[in-house]
Design a protein that fits this description.
Shape: globular
Helix content: over 70%
CATH topology: Proton glutamate symport protein
Number of helices: 22
CATH class: Mainly Alpha
Distance between the termini: 19 Å
Largest sheet: none
Number of strands: 0
CATH architecture: Orthogonal Bundle
Order of helices and strands: HHHHHHHHHHHHHHHHHHHHHH
Structural class: mainly alpha
C-alpha cells in the first residue's frame, strides 16, 4: 500500500471517495450506512468530557500561577467576543448586500409547521429565563451529572474549580495531579484507538448524504449555501489570516498542519470528533498546556465564528424570502440577540436550527416558521460551520498564547514548517502525548 494511504489523511480521503461512489451507485444501500458515522461520533463524544476535565485540571495545576490562568481566561473571553461580533456583522452585511432570499416570495402560512416542532421546543429551553437562566445552567446539579450529560461548559466550570484547588494545595495535591495527568495519557491512548475508525465513520456519513440527497446536492446547493461558504472563506482568509499574521505565524501552514483533522471534520460535520488530536497538536507546537486546556474547550461554546455567520445570514435570508421588511434597528437587534443565543449551544440537538429559532423568537417581525426553508440545506452548511469553528478556535489558541507569551515561537515555526520535532516532556519527565500518539495506537 502506498505510504500516503497508510496515513490517516490518506485513509480519510479514500473513504470520502468510496462514500461518494457508493452513494451514487447504490443510494438505498448507502442510506443504511448512516449508523457508521453516528457511531463514530458517539464514540468520540463518550470521551470528550473526561478529556476536557483532565486537560484543564492538569493545565491549571501545572501552571501554578493562578493569576496567569486568570489572565488567559479573561483575554480569551475578550478575544471571543470581539471576533464573534465581527463574524455576526459579516453575515448581516453579506445578506443585506447580496439578498439571497429576495424574489422567493414564500407565504409563511403555506409552510409546514410540524417540521419545526422539536427545534422550537429546544429553542425555548435554550433561551428560557434570559441571561440569568443561562448562567444558572452553567452550574451542574452535581459534578457527576455534568459528565453524564456531556455538557462541556459544566465540565469546564468544575474542572477550573478543581484545578485551582489543586494548585492552591501545592505539594499536598501532587498525587492527585499526577493521577489526573496519567489518566489523560490513558484517555489519549483510548482516543487513538477510536480514531483508527475515522475512515469508517467518514465512509458512512458521506455515503448516507449522497445516497439521500443525490450527487447533485454536493455541487448545487443554492445561493444561500454558496454565499455562506464564501462568507466563511472570506472570514478565515482575511480575519483569521490577519490575526495569525499579527501573531507572527502563517494561517496556511497551520491549516496544512491540521489537514488530517480538517478532513475528518469535513466528512463528519462535527468538530467534536477531533478535539483531542487538535489539543495534542497545539501543545506539540509549543503552546503552554494550561492555555490550550482553557482556550479550546471554552472556545467550543463561546467562539463559534462560522456558526455566528450562519445565524445572522440565515435570519436575514428568511426575512427576505418571506417578504418581511426589516429596518436597520431590526438588523442591530439580530446582532445583539445573536451574541447571547450563540453561546452555550454546543451539544444541543440540531443546535444551528435551535439557535436560529431562539434568535427569531426575540424578533417577532420575522416569521420563525421560515426556518423550514433552511432545513433542507442545513447539513451542507454544517460542513462549513464545523470547519470554520475549528479553524477559529485553533487560531484563537495561537493568538491568545502569543498575546500572553505562552508559546515557544521557535518550536512553533519548526513544527509548522514540517520539521521532525521531538515530543515535549511533561514536568514529571514523561513525554506528553504527541499528535502521532493520539492518531495511532
Amino acid at each position: 500500500m502506498p505510504r500516503f494511504f497508510r496515513s490517516l489523511f490518506g485513509q480519510v480521503l479514500l473513504a470520502l471517495a468510496i462514500g461518494v461512489l457508493v452513494g451514487f451507485l447504490w443510494p438505498q444501500q448507502a442510506v443504511q450506512l448512516k449508523p457508521l458515522g453516528d457511531a463514530f461520533i458517539k464514540l468520540i463524544k463518550m470521551l470528550i468530557p473526561l478529556i476536557v476535565f483532565c486537560v484543564v485540571v492538569h493545565g491549571i495545576a501545572g501552571a501554578g500561577d493562578l493569576k496567569r490562568v486568570g489572565r488567559v481566561g479573561v483575554k480569551s473571553l475578550v478575544y471571543f467576543e470581539l471576533v464573534t461580533t465581527v463574524a455576526l456583522a459579516l453575515g448581516l452585511v453579506l445578506a443585506f448586500v447580496f439578498q439571497p432570499g429576495a424574489g422567493m416570495n414564500v407565504d409563511p402560512k403555506m409552510l409546514d409547521a410540524k417540521a419545526m416542532g422539536a427545534y422550537v421546543d429546544n429553542a425555548s429551553k435554550l433561551t428560557g429565563g434570559g441571561t440569568v437562566e443561562f448562567l444558572m445552567k452553567l452550574i451542574p446539579t452535581t459534578a457527576i451529572s455534568a459528565f453524564a450529560n456531556g455538557d462541556v461548559l459544566q465540565v469546564l466550570l468544575f474542572a477550573v474549580l478543581f484545578g485551582c484547588a489543586l494548585a492552591m494545595l501545592g505539594e499536598r495535591g501532587a498525587k492527585v495531579s499526577g493521577f489526573i495527568e496519567d489518566m489523560s495519557h490513558v484517555l489519549f491512548k483510548t482516543m487513538g484507538i477510536i480514531i483508527k475508525l475515522a475512515p469508517l465513520g467518514v465512509l458512512g456519513a458521506i455515503a448516507f448524504t449522497v445516497g439521500k440527497y443525490g450527487l447533485g446536492s454536493l455541487k448545487q446547493l443554492g445561493q444561500l449555501v454558496v454565499l455562506f461558504y464564501a462568507a466563511v472563506f472570506l472570514f478565515v482568509a482575511i480575519v483569521l489570516g490577519g490575526i495569525m499574521r499579527f501573531s507572527g505565524f502563517s494561517l496556511f501552514k497551520l491549516l496544512r498542519y491540521l489537514r488530517e483533522e480538517l478532513a475528518v471534520v469535513f466528512a463528519t460535520t462535527s468538530s467534536d470528533s477531533v478535539l483531542p488530536q487538535v489539543m495534542a497538536k497545539l501543545k506539540h507546537m509549543g503552546i503552554r498546556d494550561s492555555t490550550v486546556g482553557l482556550v479550546i474547550p471554552t472556545g467550543y461554546s463561546f467562539n463559534l465564528d462560522a456558526f455566528s455567520i450562519y445565524i445572522t445570514l440565515a435570519a436575514v435570508f428568511i426575512a427576505q424570502a418571506t417578504n418581511t421588511p426589516i429596518s436597520m434597528a431590526d438588523l442591530l437587534t439580530i446582532l445583539a440577540i445573536s451574541l447571547v443565543t450563540s453561546k452555550g449551544a454546543h451539544g444541543v440537538p440540531g443546535s444551528a436550527i435551535v439557535v436560529l429559532a431562539a434568535t427569531l423568537q426575540a424578533i417577532p417581525a420575522i416569521p420563525a416558521i421560515g426556518l423550514v426553508l433552511v432545513l433542507s440545506v442545513d447539513w451542507f452548511m454544517g460542513i462549513a460551520r464545523a470547519l470554520g469553528n475549528l479553524i477559529g478556535n485553533c487560531v484563537a489558541t495561537v493568538a491568545v498564547a502569543a498575546w500572553e507569551g505562552d508559546i515557544d515561537r521557535e518550536r512553533a515555526h519548526q513544527v509548522l514548517d514540517g520539521a521532525d520535532v521531538p515530543a515535549l516532556e511533561a514536568p514529571n519527565g514523561a513525554a506528553n502525548p504527541t499528535p502521532a500518539a493520539v492518531a495511532a495506537a
